[in-house]
Write a structure and sequence with these properties.
eleven-stranded antiparallel sheet; 8% helix; 45% strand
């Protein structure tokens, strides 16, 4: 999407990804297009396919940068920079992958206990080899962990699958570190919602949300 008919005078303000089916660890194809072009706002769409089947679909709005005055967000920012907090290790029983590819520093909460969590994250590796990650990529990669860090039910007995991720941004992130301040609500019937405030070292940059399917894990 970032490379699709590039508009340096615009930034992506809202991104939504729909996960249609399991995405394999292997070769995938990506395509993107401008659905609605314009001078002030544009709508983008993208698709990911594997083995001839579409596995994910995304849409995004990008908006024109203007000279409007800044208004500080009312959400509270992170409680101190990343260096103030210890690095958090993943539980030994958890599979490797994304968790090991990110450096995590916990402010409060964490994977070892249920409830809301605030945590700093920084990519250890680029998303694309030899390519510097963009501010958008850094924010989205951390935002997708909102439901994982703020679980409310025993993760050994229950899964909480997010079929989608939606992120709203009011400015681009500065620096490598992204703070994820997340919490999860679960209601009877097996539906949950994980919400998060995203920040960089200077303050909030936006919010994330994930719809959740709550269900028992196989024995």
């Amino acid at each position: 999407m970032q490379e699709c008919e590039r508009r340096p005078d615009m930034m992506i303000a809202r991104f939504t990804c729909e996960i249609l089916r399991p995405i394999p660890v292997g070769e995938i194809g990506v395509a993107a297009r401008v659905v609605r072009s314009g001078r002030s706002v544009e709508l983008l769409e993208a698709s990911v396919s594997a083995g001839g089947r579409e596995v994910a679909r995304a849409s995004a709005w990008r908006v024109l940068r203007t000279d409007a005055d800044s208004v500080l967000p009312r959400q509270l920012g992170p409680e101190g920079p990343p260096d103030d907090y210890p690095e958090m290790r993943r539980p030994r029983s958890w599979a490797d992958g994304l968790l090991a590819a990110i450096e995590w520093r916990v402010i409060r909460g964490g994977w070892h206990g249920a409830g809301p969590t605030a945590i700093w994250g920084r990519m250890r590796y680029p998303l694309i080899p030899d390519e510097e990650p963009s501010p958008l990529e850094r924010a989205l990669i951390i935002a997708d962990s909102g439901n994982g860090v703020s679980w409310e039910l025993d993760i050994n007995r229950w899964h909480f699958i997010n079929p989608e991720l939606t992120v709203h941004l009011h400015r681009e992130a500065e620096g490598e570190w992204i703070c994820l301040d997340a919490q999860t609500a679960i209601s009877s019937g097996g539906v949950g919602l994980a919400t998060s405030v995203l920040s960089d070292v200077t303050g909030p940059i936006g919010t994330g949300a994930q719809s959740l399917l709550i269900g028992p894990r196989p024995a």
